[in-house]
TrEMBL record, chain A:
GO terms for cellular component: nucleus. Keywords: Nucleus. Pfam families: MCM_bind. This is Mini-chromosome maintenance complex-binding protein. The keyword Nucleus applies. It comes from the Eukaryota. GO terms for molecular function: chromatin binding. Residues 163-211 are annotated as: Disordered. It is found in: Nucleus.
From TrEMBL, chain B:
PANTHER family: DNA REPLICATION LICENSING FACTOR MCM FAMILY MEMBER (PTHR11630), DNA REPLICATION LICENSING FACTOR MCM4 (PTHR11630:SF66). Residues 1-122 are annotated as: Disordered. It comes from Arabidopsis thaliana x Arabidopsis arenosa. Its EC number is 3.6.4.12. The keyword Oxidoreductase does not apply. Residues 434-640 form the MCM C-terminal AAA(+) ATPase domain. It is an enzyme of class 3 (hydrolase). Residues 1-31 have a biased composition (Polar residues). This is DNA helicase. Belongs to the MCM family.
C-alpha cells in the first residue's frame, strides 16, 4: 500500500490495519497494550478535523440505512439511551508470527484451528437512539452524499473480479455481498412499520425498546479507548465509525433457549442487526445546538452587541405576535427559552426557569398553544409536548424502568436529552382519579420541575439522573401539580395569524438562541452589592419571598443579560428584571 | 458434546445438537478447564499429583474455557498428549481452536523447555506443583489463629479442626479464609489468586489426602471454598487482565435462573443384552457413548443407550449480579455480570439479595450457531463462584444499630471499616471543632438554623439506651419536633435526615393511619391465619422515623405514638394476637402552626394543636420562625448571589460529604458508648436544680415549673450524643453544658410564656401557662362577684356583653384587656360549678 494507501472514508478498516502495521513496526506490542489505541484515533481526528470533512460522511438514519454500505464510515447522531456494559473480544491475534487486529470489527477474523495467540481486549457497548423530540430542521439532507456513495460502490463492484479470503479485502467482499442482495437492511422496513410508535404512545414491551418516533433508527455503538466518564447516559453525541453488518448473528435467534439466554447478554437476540446496526466508533463528540445549524457556527461574541440587539428585537417581535401582542409574556418566554441548568448545589438546580402561562383555556390553547409549539419546533433542536390528561398520566410510563427480563432500560417519556424543551398542556386536564401510575408520573413531573432530576426505576432501587429540561406549562389557573418558577397570566389583545418566517430568519434565531445559551456570565463587585441590597429590601417588604424567589430573580437577570449578548450583569438589566417582576406581580393580583 | 472444542476432541466432527441437552450454555464454544487437560497430559509422568482420581471438580465440569490458557500449554499439550492419549489436537489445522489464547504473562514460556524434565510445573508458569502442594499441606496442618495461646502449640490447626468437623457431619466443603492463607504464606496467596484453577485443584487434592488419612472410608469429595479475599474488585473495573484470576466483588442479585440438572456420571445399557456399563464420568462437559457393548459376549455395535435414572446429576444455576447503586458513577447505568453456581451454592441467594462473591472470572467464546464451527470474536464472561456471602445475613447477626434494609442508603455493611478509614475518623473526631463541622455538614444548603441542626445531629448520634435489671428501660433515642412557619425548609431538613439516617422511614401525617404507623393485624384471605404487618414505626426500629405534617395526623394515629415515644414498643392486642413489637425509633416530626403562620400571641399548644401529653415526649421542640432579620436576609442574599455566580462550591468546602458523615455516624453509634463522668453528673444535678429554681421568682405567688424529670433524661441523652460525636467514652462537663444550652434554646422558644417571658414547662405539659391560669382565676372570681352583686337567684338574666362592660368598669384587679371569649370561658367554668346557667347569649344565676 503506497501513497495514501487507504481511504478513511470508504475503507476505514483498511486505514485501521495500515496504522496497526505501522504501529507494530514502531514497537507497538499488542501483547502488553491491552488494546490501547495505536494512533488510529489521531489519524481520524486529524482527517476529520474540520467540519467540511465530517460532512462528507453520511449520517446513518432510517433513510440512509438503505443505501449505506457496511464496513464504511458513517456518522450517527443520537442520544445514549442505555449502556450495555463491556464486551470482551479477541482484539489481536497472531497469524504466523505477525500480529493482526480485530479492533473496530465484529466478526472474528482469526483463522481458527492453528495455535494462535489471542489477545482479549475490551470495548463498551452503548445503545443509542435518535434524540427524542428531534425537530425536522436538525436533520441534514444526505441526498447528495447518497449519490456520490452509490457511484463509489458501483465502481467497486465492477472492479472486483473475485472474492478473496484475504483480510485486507474482506471489507470489499462484504460490500459486494451486500451489493448483490441489495441492502442487508432492507428487511428492516417491515419491522419498522409494525413497531412504529408515536411520541405519546406507551412503549410496548417488546424486545427492542420502542423508539420515540416512527422513523427512528437505533444504533448499537461500540466504543474503544474512551474513559468512562466521557460519555454519560442521555448525552447527545455524534459517533463517527465503521458500520458493520454481521450476517451470521441473526441465526442465533432460533437456537436460543432459556439457559443460554441467562448467560449471554442476549444482545443479539433483542437487537438483530438488521434492526439495530452496529457502529464501531472511531471518534465521537458531544453535540451542541450549533452542530445542528447548517454551515454557520455561533455568533461572534460580545464584540457586536448591536447584532444581538437586532436579532433580539426581531425575535421578540415574532414572539409577541405569537402571544397575541402580549409583550410581557414574550419577554418572559424569551428568558425561559434561554434558561439552562448551569450549576447544581445539592438539590438546587441553578439556572432553571420554568414558565407557567395561565388563563388559557381549551379554545385559546388551540390558537396560541399550537402556534407557539409550532414556532418552538422551528427554533429549538429538541422539543416535546406532553398532554396532561388523566388517561395519559395513568397509562404512560414517564420514568425509564429497567427490565431485568431482557436486561435493558426501557425508556420513559422523561428520558430526554439535556436542553430539550418540554411543553405541558394542563388545559386538557379534567377532574378524575389518578391511579398509582398516574400519581407516580405526576410526582416525576413535579420532581423534574423542582430539581431537574428524573428518577430511574431499577426495581431494587431508584437512581436519580440529573437533567436539564426547559418546561413550559399551559394551564387555566396556576398549576399545582407542576409548580413552575414563573407564573404569568397571558393577556393577549388580539389573535394574529401565523407569521411565515423565512428559513434564513429561522436559522438566525436558532443561532442566536444557541449562542446566548452558551454565553458565560458574571457579576461585578459593585453590582453584586446592589443586587444584595435589593434582595434584602425585597425580603424585608415581603416576607413570603423565599430563597427560590430570590434565586429566580438572579436567573432572570442572567437571561436578560445574555439575551443582549453580554456576559456581565449591568445595572440596567438588573432593573429590567425588577421591573418585569413587578409587572408580573401586578398581573397576578 | 457440542460445547466442547478442546484440542482433545478434534475428531468428533460436528456434534449433533441433540446431545447437549444438559449443557446450560448452548451456543458456547468451549472446552474444559485447563486443569483437566493438564492432568490428562501429565498422566504419562508418574507423579503423585497425577495419581489421585480426578475428582469431579466443579471447575472442570463447567464446560467452558478460559481463553487464556497459556501458549506453552497448548504446545506441550500437543507434544505430550498424543502419546498420553490426552488432548493431541494441535496437529489438525482445520479444527477450530479458540481456547488456547495467550495471557500476557511474564512467566510465559519460562518453563517451556523444563517442562518435561521437571515434571510438575503448572503450565506456563513457574509454579511448581509440589511446592504448592507442600505449601498447602503446611497451611492446612499448621495454621493457627494468632490469638491462640502458645500453650496450644500442640493443638491442631484451625483447618484441621474444621476438616474433622466436616468428616463428622459428612460435609462437602470447608471454608478457608483467604486472610489466613495470606497470613500464613503470602506467596501461596498470590499464587492462588493468580492461578486459581491450578492451585485450587491442588488444594482439593491435598484435602482429599488429608481426609483419607483421617478416615479411609470417607467417600465424599471435600472441596475448598475460599472467601474473604484481601482486595475486592468493583464490577466496573473488571477487565481482560482479570480473566482466570480469583476475584471478589459485591453486588445485588437481580435474576436467577431455574436450577439446571447437569449430568456428571452417565450409565449406559446395552439394548441387546441388557448389560449395564460402569458409570462414565463427564469429561470436559462431554460423555462419550461406548460404541459397542462392553460385555465380551455381546459386543453389539451401537447398542448402548443412556439410562437416565441411574445417572448422577449436579445442580447448576446461573445468576445475574448487578452493581450496587453506590458504585455507579454519575450518568452511568449499573453493570451486570453472570455468576455460575454449582451444587451447594445453588439457590444461595434470591433476587434482591446483596451478596459478596468470591470466584474465578472467566470468559468463553461464543459459537455463532450450534451447527457452526466459526466463533464470534466476542467473549461472554461470567464468574465461576467459589463462595457466596450474603450481606444481609451478616448484618442481622451483628446487631448493628445502623444497619439498613433500604438499599438507597449506603450506611450498611461497611461498618467494619478498614483501618485507614478508621484512622481518618479518629483523626476527624480529635479535631476541636468537630461538633461545629458536623453541624455545618448537615444539610449545608439550608441556611441558618444552626441550633436546630445541632439538635438533629444529637438525634442522629443518639444517647445510650439503658435496660436495668429491674426491667425498667430508658430510651436512648431523642425525639425532636420542629414547628414553624411554612417555607422555613422544615421538610427539607426532614428529607435530609431521612436520607442520612439508618432505616429511616418517611411518612406524612396526613397520609398515615394508626395502623400504618404501628402494626397491623390482617387475616390472610387464603389460609385465614392472622398475620402481623409492621408499620412505619416498627420498620424504623433503631432508626429515625420522620413524620411530616405531624399536625395533620388524625388523633387516633397520634395517640398510638404515646407508647412508641416513651416505652419504645408497639403493643397489639387484637384478633387473637397479643404482641409487643420493638419500635426503638427516634421520632422527628414537623408541624405547621394551626393558623398556617405562628401566632406569637397564642401558646405553643394552641399553635400546634397537639395534645400536651404527646408534646412532652419530645426532647427538643424547635420553633422555626421566620422572623424578619436583616442580617439573616443579607446572608441569604449573599449565598444566592454566590450560588449564581460560580463560587457556590467554595462556600461549603469544609463540609464533610454525606457518605463520610453516614459512616462516621454509624461507626460512632455502634462502637462508642459514653458514660457519665462524675463531674458531668454533678453538673447535671446542679443544672437541673437551677432550672427548677428558675421557676420560683422571689415574691411571685405563682408556681412555675421550668423543668421536669423528663428533661433530665433528655439532658443525659443529649450529652451522651455529644460525647459520641467526639468518639469519647466519657461524657464531660462541657457536653452537659452544651446539652443544657441546646435544651434551653429549644425550650426558650417553645416554652416561653409570652405573658411573662419566662420558661414554663406547664405550657408544654398542660397547654396553659401558670400566669394564664392565674388570670383566669381572677376572672372567674370577679365575674362571681359581679353576679352576686347584680343578680338574684332565678332573677332576670344578663347579657354577656353587659357582663363584659361591668367587668371593664370593675377591672381593678384585671390589668390586661378583656375579650368576650375570655368572659365566655370564665362563665363556662362558673356554670360547671352550678353557679350560673348559660342560655345562649345570656346568663342566669341559679
Amino acid at each position: 500500500m503506497g501513497g495514501p494507501a487507504y481511504d478513511c472514508l470508504t475503507n476505514p478498516l483498511g486505514a485501521v490495519r495500515f496504522s496497526f502495521v505501522n504501529a507494530l513496526s514502531s514497537g507497538y506490542d499488542p501483547a502488553s497494550s491491552v488494546g490501547k489505541d495505536w494512533g488510529v484515533v489521531d489519524l481520524f481526528r486529524h482527517y476529520f478535523s474540520d467540519e467540511s470533512a465530517i460532512s462528507q460522511v453520511p449520517i446513518l438514519d432510517s433513510s440512509s440505512i438503505k443505501w449505506v454500505q457496511p464496513k464504511t464510515l458513517v456518522r450517527f447522531r443520537g442520544m445514549i439511551q442505555d449502556m450495555l456494559g463491556n464486551e470482551f473480544y479477541a482484539g489481536a491475534y497472531k497469524d504466523d508470527s505477525t500480529w493482526r487486529t480485530n479492533k473496530y470489527s465484529d466478526v472474528s477474523q482469526f483463522p481458527e484451528g492453528s495455535s494462535t495467540e489471542i489477545q482479549v481486549w475490551e470495548r463498551r457497548l452503548l445503545y443509542c437512539v435518535p434524540v427524542p423530540g428531534k425537530n425536522q430542521w436538525t436533520e441534514c439532507s444526505s441526498q447528495e452524499l447518497k449519490n456520490r456513495f452509490l457511484d463509489l460502490t458501483g465502481q467497486n463492484r465492477e472492479k472486483r473480479v473475485r472474492v478473496d479470503e484475504e483480510m485486507t479485502d474482506s471489507m470489499d467482499s462484504s460490500t459486494l455481498e451486500a451489493g448483490r442482495n441489495g441492502s442487508p437492511f432492507k428487511k428492516m422496513k417491515v419491522g419498522e412499520a409494525t413497531s412504529s410508535a408515536s411520541e405519546s404512545q406507551v412503549p410496548q414491551t417488546s424486545g427492542i425498546p420502542p423508539a420515540t418516533s416512527a422513523d427512528s433508527l437505533p444504533c448499537l455503538v461500540k466504543i474503544y479507548d474512551s474513559p468512562e466518564s466521557d460519555l454519560k447516559l442521555n448525552d447527545v453525541v455524534e459517533f463517527l465509525g465503521v458500520l458493520t453488518f454481521d450476517p451470521i448473528v441473526m441465526m442465533d435467534t432460533d437456537t436460543l433457549d432459556e439457559n443460554s439466554d441467562a448467560l449471554s447478554e442476549a444482545e443479539s437476540v433483542q437487537m438483530p442487526s438488521e434492526k439495530v446496526p452496529r457502529l464501531h466508533c472511531l471518534i465521537h463528540r458531544k453535540l451542541e445546538t450549533q452542530h445542528f445549524l447548517h454551515g454557520s457556527s455561533l455568533l461572534p461574541e460580545p464584540k457586536s452587541p448591536q447584532i444581538f440587539k437586532e436579532i433580539r428585537e426581531s425575535l421578540m417581535k415574532y414572539l409577541t405576535g405569537l402571544l397575541g401582542n402580549d409583550h410581557i409574556a414574550a419577554q418572559f418566554l424569551l428568558l425561559h427559552l434561554l434558561s439552562k441548568v448551569h450549576g447544581r448545589v445539592d438539590n438546587v438546580a441553578v439556572g432553571k426557569l420554568s414558565l407557567n402561562l395561565i388563563h388559557l383555556n381549551k379554545e385559546s390553547m388551540s390558537i396560541f398553544g399550537t402556534q407557539l409549539s409550532g414556532a418552538l419546533k422551528s427554533l429549538l433542536p429538541f422539543t416535546q409536548s406532553i398532554p396532561l390528561t388523566i388517561e395519559y398520566l395513568n397509562t404512560a410510563s414517564f420514568g425509564p424502568k429497567k427490565d431485568y427480563g431482557i436486561n435493558r432500560l426501557m425508556p420513559g417519556v422523561l428520558q430526554i436529552a439535556d436542553g430539550t424543551h418540554l411543553i405541558l398542556d394542563e388545559t386538557e386536564l379534567q377532574p378524575g382519579t389518578l391511579n398509582s401510575v398516574g400519581v407516580e408520573n405526576a410526582n416525576l413531573l413535579k420532581n423534574l420541575l423542582e430539581c431537574q432530576k428524573v428518577e430511574y426505576d431499577f426495581q431494587y432501587y431508584k437512581m436519580e439522573m440529573a437533567t436539564d429540561v426547559q418546561m413550559l406549562i399551559f394551564s387555566e389557573g396556576k398549576s399545582n401539580i407542576m409548580p413552575a418558577d414563573l407564573v404569568l397570566p397571558l393577556q393577549p389583545s388580539q389573535v394574529n395569524s401565523l407569521e411565515v418566517i423565512t428559513p434564513e430568519t429561522a436559522e438566525t434565531w436558532r443561532c442566536y438562541l444557541a449562542t446566548c445559551k452558551s454565553l458565560s456570565h458574571s457579576i461585578g463587585q459593585e453590582l453584586q452589592q446592589v443586587v444584595e441590597n435589593d434582595l434584602v429590601a425585597a425580603r424585608q417588604t415581603d416576607r413570603s419571598l423565599g430563597s427560590q424567589d430570590l434565586s429566580r430573580l438572579l436567573t432572570m437577570a442572567r437571561m436578560i443579560s445574555v439575551s443582549y449578548g453580554e456576559t456581565t450583569l449591568s445595572l440596567e438589566h438588573w432593573q429590567m428584571v425588577l421591573e418585569l417582576e413587578r409587572l408580573r406581580k401586578e398581573r397576578l393580583k | 458434546m457440542a460445547s466442547d472444542s478442546s484440542p482433545g476432541n478434534t475428531n468428533d466432527g460436528p456434534s449433533s445438537p441433540g446431545e447437549n441437552v444438559s449443557s446450560p450454555i448452548e451456543n458456547t464454544y468451549s472446552s474444559p478447564a485447563a486443569l483437566h487437560r493438564r492432568r490428562r497430559g501429565r498422566s504419562s509422568t508418574p507423579t503423585q499429583f497425577a495419581t489421585p482420581p480426578p475428582p469431579p471438580t466443579r471447575l472442570a465440569s463447567s464446560n467452558s474455557t478460559p481463553p487464556t490458557s497459556r501458549p506453552s500449554a497448548a504446545r506441550s499439550n500437543g507434544r505430550n498428549g498424543r502419546g498420553g492419549g490426552g488432548g493431541g489436537g494441535g496437529g489438525d489445522p482445520g479444527t477450530p481452536l479458540s481456547t488456547d489464547e495467550p495471557l500476557p504473562s511474564s512467566d510465559d514460556g519460562e518453563d517451556d523447555g523444563a517442562d518435561d524434565t521437571t515434571p510438575t510445573f503448572v503450565w506456563g508458569t513457574n509454579i511448581s506443583v509440589q511446592d504448592v502442594k507442600s505449601a498447602i499441606e503446611m497451611f492446612v496442618k499448621h495454621f493457627r489463629e494468632a490469638r491462640e495461646n502458645s500453650e496450644d502449640l500442640f493443638r491442631e490447626g484451625k483447618y484441621m479442626v474444621s476438616i474433622r468437623k466436616v468428616i463428622e457431619i459428612e460435609g462437602e466443603w470447608i471454608d478457608v479464609d483467604a486472610f489466613d492463607v495470606f497470613d500464613y504464606d503470602p506467596d501461596l496467596y498470590n499464587k492462588m489468586v493468580r492461578y486459581p484453577l491450578e492451585v485450587l485443584a491442588i488444594f482439593d487434592i491435598v484435602l482429599m489426602d488429608i481426609v483419607s488419612t483421617i478416615n479411609r472410608l470417607f467417600e465424599k469429595h471435600v472441596q475448598v471454598r475460599i472467601f474473604n479475599l484481601r482486595t475486592s474488585t468493583s464490577m466496573r473495573n473488571l477487565n481482560p487482565s482479570d480473566i482466570e484470576k480469583m476475584i471478589s466483588l459485591k453486588g445485588m442479585i437481580i435474576r436467577s435462573s431455574s436450577i439446571i440438572p447437569e449430568i456428571r456420571e452417565a450409565v449406559f445399557r446395552c439394548l441387546v443384552c441388557g448389560y449395564f456399563s460402569d458409570p462414565i464420568i463427564v469429561d470436559r462437559g462431554k460423555i462419550s457413548e461406548p460404541p459397542t457393548c462392553l460385555k465380551q459376549e455381546c459386543m453389539a455395535k451401537n447398542s448402548m443407550t443412556i439410562v437416565h435414572n441411574r445417572c448422577r446429576f449436579a445442580d447448576k444455576q446461573i445468576v445475574r449480579l448487578q452493581e450496587t447503586p453506590d458504585e455507579i458513577p454519575e450518568g452511568g447505568t449499573p453493570h451486570t455480570v453472570s455468576l455460575l453456581l454449582h451444587d451447594k451454592l445453588v439457590d444461595n441467594g434470591k433476587p434482591g439479595d446483596r451478596i459478596e462473591v468470591t470466584g474465578i472470572y472467566r470468559a468463553m467464546t461464543v459459537r455463532v450457531g450450534p451447527a457452526h464451527r466459526t466463533v464470534k470474536s466476542v467473549f461472554k464472561t461470567y464468574i465461576d463462584c467459589l463462595h457466596i456471602k450474603k450481606a444481609s445475613k451478616l448484618r442481622m447477626s451483628a446487631e448493628d444499630p445502623m444497619d439498613v434494609d433500604n438499599s438507597l442508603r449506603r450506611v450498611n455493611e461497611d461498618v467494619e471499616l478498614d483501618e485507614e478509614k478508621l484512622r481518618k475518623f479518629q483523626e476527624l473526631s480529635k479535631q476541636p471543632d468537630i461538633y461545629e463541622r458536623l453541624s455545618r455538614s448537615l444539610a449545608p444548603n439550608i441556611w441558618e438554623l444552626d441550633d436546630v441542626k445541632k439538635g438533629l445531629l444529637c438525634q442522629l448520634f443518639g444517647g445510650n439506651a439503658l435496660n436495668l435489671a429491674s426491667g425498667a428501660n430508658f430510651r436512648g433515642d431523642i425525639n425532636i419536633l420542629l414547628v414553624g412557619d411554612p417555607g422555613t425548609s422544615k421538610s427539607q431538613l426532614l428529607q435530609y435526615i431521612h436520607k442520612l439516617s439508618p432505616r429511616g422511614i418517611y411518612t406524612s401525617g396526613r397520609g398515615s393511619s394508626a395502623v400504618g404507623l404501628t402494626a397491623y393485624v390482617a387475616k390472610d384471605p387464603e389460609t385465614g391465619e392472622t398475620v402481623l404487618e409492621s408499620g412505619a414505626l416498627v420498620l424504623s426500629d433503631r432508626g429515625i422515623c420522620c413524620i411530616d405534617e405531624f399536625d395533620k395526623m388524625s388523633d387516633s394515629a397520634r395517640s398510638m405514638l404515646h407508647e412508641v415515644m416513651e416505652q419504645q414498643t408497639v403493643s397489639i392486642a387484637k384478633a387473637g394476637i397479643i404482641a409487643s413489637l420493638n419500635a426503638r425509633t427516634s421520632v422527628l416530626a414537623c408541624a405547621n402552626p394551626s393558623g398556617s403562620r405562628y401566632n406569637p400571641r397564642l401558646s405553643v399548644i394552641e399553635n400546634i394543636h397537639l395534645p400536651p401529653t404527646l408534646l412532652s415526649r419530645f426532647d427538643l421542640i424547635y420553633l422555626i420562625l421566620d422572623k424578619p432579620d436583616e442580617q439573616t436576609d443579607r446572608r441569604l442574599a449573599k449565598h444566592i448571589v454566590a450560588l449564581h455566580f460560580e463560587n457556590a462550591e467554595s462556600a461549603q468546602e469544609e463540609a464533610i460529604d454525606i457518605t463520610t458523615l453516614t459512616t462516621y455516624v454509624s461507626y460512632a453509634r455502634k462502637n462508642i458508648h459514653p458514660k457519665l463522668s462524675d463531674e458531668a453528673a454533678e453538673e447535671l444535678t446542679r443544672g437541673y436544680v437551677e432550672m427548677r429554681k428558675a421557676g420560683k421568682f422571689a415574691g411571685s405567688s405563682k408556681k412555675v415549673i421550668t423543668a421536669t424529670p423528663r428533661q433530665i433524661e433528655s439532658l443525659i441523652r443529649l450529652s451522651e450524643a455529644l460525647a459520641r460525636m467526639r468518639f469519647s467514652e466519657w461524657v464531660e462537663k462541657h457536653d452537659v453544658d452544651e446539652a443544657f444550652r441546646l435544651l434551653r434554646v429549644a425550650m426558650q422558644q417553645s416554652a416561653t410564656d409570652h405573658a411573662t417571658g419566662t420558661i414554663d414547662m406547664d405550657l408544654i405539659n398542660t397547654g396553659v401557662s401558670a400566669s394564664e391560669r392565674m388570670r383566669r382565676d381572677t376572672f372567674v372570681s370577679s365575674i362571681r362577684d359581679i353576679a352576686l352583686e347584680k343578680m338574684q337567684i332565678g332573677g332576670s338574666s344578663m347579657r354577656l356583653s353587659e357582663l363584659l362592660e361591668e367587668l371593664k368598669k370593675h377591672g381593678g384587679n384585671i390589668n390586661t384587656e378583656i375579650h368576650l371569649h375570655d368572659v365566655r370561658k370564665a362563665v363556662a367554668t362558673l356554670s360547671s360549678e352550678g353557679f350560673l346557667v348559660v342560655e345562649g347569649d345570656r346568663i342566669k344565676r341559679v
